[in-house]
Amino acid sequence: MADVEATKSLSGLLNGIAQQMFYKNSDITEELLKDELFPELSPDQFKALLDRMTNLLKSIATADMDHAQLEAFLTAQTRKQGSGGVSPEQAAALSRFWKSQRVRVRESLLSQSRWEPGLRGVSWRVDLQTSASRGGGAHGGPVALMELELGTTGQDSEFLCLEFDEAKVNQVLKNMSDIQDRIDRIVQT
């Protein structure tokens, strides 16, 4: 019976950590978790358990571990039980938690990492002026027209229309090339 209670308490702790860390529920506090789930532990013992489980969940979520990766990770953690590892019961609780919460945690992390408003769509075209201006026979150059669809989750889109002449298009392309070069340098380091 004590093992069943310990398993329930650990599952509750993992869910509480997820509520704090992934779902940004500020009603879940360390004190609440300790008082409700582990009143028998000293504050230091509880803090050590909380930190260990929090770090393990961060590692699992950051890697978005699939079943095989999770099992290998937890096996390695049980082998180093004395030095910050986990017990087989804790590993089993982590495994059950991740199997049931992986999709929800992933969606939460993705939604937290999105910029708002976001770019929902882009459409563009290039127009050529074919008629001569009144003062002479010179034709205007090509004009690029771009429409950006911007929006915040749960709200209607807004549209932004931009017009570029050839010089501005070349400037935008150069800026995008510079950005790509910077990203490539960061990725290579």
Question: What does this protein structure show overall?
Answer:
This protein has helices at 2-21, 30-37, 43-63, 67-79, 88-112, 166-188; strands at 118-127, 143-151, 158-164. It folds into 2 domains: 2-112, no CATH class; 118-188, no CATH class. It has 189 residues and is α+β, with helices and mostly antiparallel strands. Helix 1 (2-21) crosses helix 3 (43-63). Strands 1-2-3 form a 3-stranded antiparallel sheet.
Radius of gyration: 27 Å
Q: What is the overall pLDDT average?
A: 89
- Residue share in helix: 55-70%
Gross morphology is elongated
Q: Beta fraction of the residues?
A: 5-15%
Q: What are the segments in which pLDDT stays under 50 over at least 5 consecutive residues?
A: 133-137
Largest sheet: 3 strands, antiparallel
Instruction: Give a count of the beta strands, DSSP E runs of length 2 or more.
Output: 3
List keywords for this structure.
3 strands; 58% helix; 2 domains; 14% strand; alpha+beta; three-stranded antiparallel β-sheet
